[in-house]
Design brief:
306 residues; alpha+beta; Double-stranded beta-helix; 7-stranded mixed beta sheet; 3-stranded antiparallel beta sheet; 8 helices
């Protein structure tokens, strides 16, 4: 059966049906999904009760899986899921919601900021796939912003200004902006700033898009206050309601999005109840700009962005 793709918002989101993600992917299905990702950038698959192994197998149809280290987990005994699965739930190893002051919960609050997954890595992520094993009973929607439409809505003067700009991204910036400061030396080393272009060009469609994220701490060659002022203005522009699709999760939804063309954030939810969300990430295959070693002395204010 040929898969069906129905636009939700004509600009950048669509629902995909007539496919079972638990079954092996066929070459025509991969081609259809990739073409839809290039066109829409956010795809919604309803009623997909996948296991972790099935989710990873589906993910591998589009490239290698990004194996993330660090972040909200700092000890090997804190991992709830197997390697290859990113746990963006509010649950500890026993399946109970985190205590309010749990470091892992505090770190995950950064997911409520607009961001692009793994923009803080030298080679940023391509696709993310998020499976709702237990969605929040109240709240917890995920919002997506179309960075292509946001770029195209800029005036010519702004496009010319930003065309060649390079930003520095780090988890230390996004978490530091929320007052989180409990970083170990190993984390500071692992999340040293990397450089990414502010304007990206899609390798298939040729469309330009803004590459924004809460992980941005400065613009190379700019004074930090001026850089953050521009990034804030661009983010406010790019997250206007006309550029945003809000996904209200249902049990066993799986949403797939292109990090090169979108930003996203999770909304507040009742954290006294379980929200079990499991992500796999398709690794990127290219840097956006030649990387240079970035030392703390190169970033006014230090590497924690405070």
């Amino acid at each position: 059966m040929t898969i069906t793709i129905r636009p939700i918002d004509p600009s950048f989101a669509a629902e995909v049906s007539d496919i079972d993600l638990r079954a092996p992917l066929t070459a025509p299905a991969v081609a259809a999904i990739e073409a839809a990702m290039d066109r829409y950038a956010v795809l919604v698959f309803h009623d997909q009760p996948v296991t972790d192994e099935q989710q990873m197998a589906f993910t591998l149809g589009f490239g290698s899986i990004e194996h993330a280290q660090g972040g909200n987990i700092t000890r090997a005994d804190e991992y709830r899921l197997q390697d290859g699965m990113i746990d963006v739930s509010n649950l500890d190893q026993s399946g109970r919601p985190f205590d309010r002051n749990d470091r892992r919960r505090m770190f995950n609050l950064g997911n409520r900021l607009w961001h692009s997954d793994s923009s803080y890595r030298a080679v940023p992520a391509r696709y993310s796939l998020l499976s709702a094993r237990t969605p929040a009973g109240r709240g917890g929607d995920t919002e997506f912003a179309d960075m292509r439409a946001a770029y195209e809505a800029l005036d010519d003067e702004m496009r010319a200004l930003i065309e060649d700009l390079v930003c520095e991204h780090s988890l230390l910036y996004s978490r530091g902006s929320m007052g989180f400061s409990g970083f170990s030396e190993a984390e500071r080393e692992a999340f040293r700033p990397v450089r990414q272009r502010l304007v990206r060009v899609h390798p298939v469609t040729g469309r330009r898009s803004l590459y924004l994220s809460s992980h941005i701490g400065t613009i190379v060659g700019w004074p930090v206050p001026e850089a953050r002022d521009l990034v804030r203005d661009l983010t406010e522009h790019a997250t206007q309601r006309r550029f945003v699709y809000a996904h209200r999760w249902r049990h066993y939804d799986l949403v797939m999005w292109d990090n090169r063309q979108t930003m996203h954030r999770v909304r507040r939810f009742d954290e006294s109840q379980p929200r079990d969300m499991r992500r796999t990430t398709v690794a990127g295959d290219a840097m956006t700009v030649a990387q240079e070693q970035v030392l703390s002395r190169e970033v006014p204010g230090g590497r924690d962005g405070q």
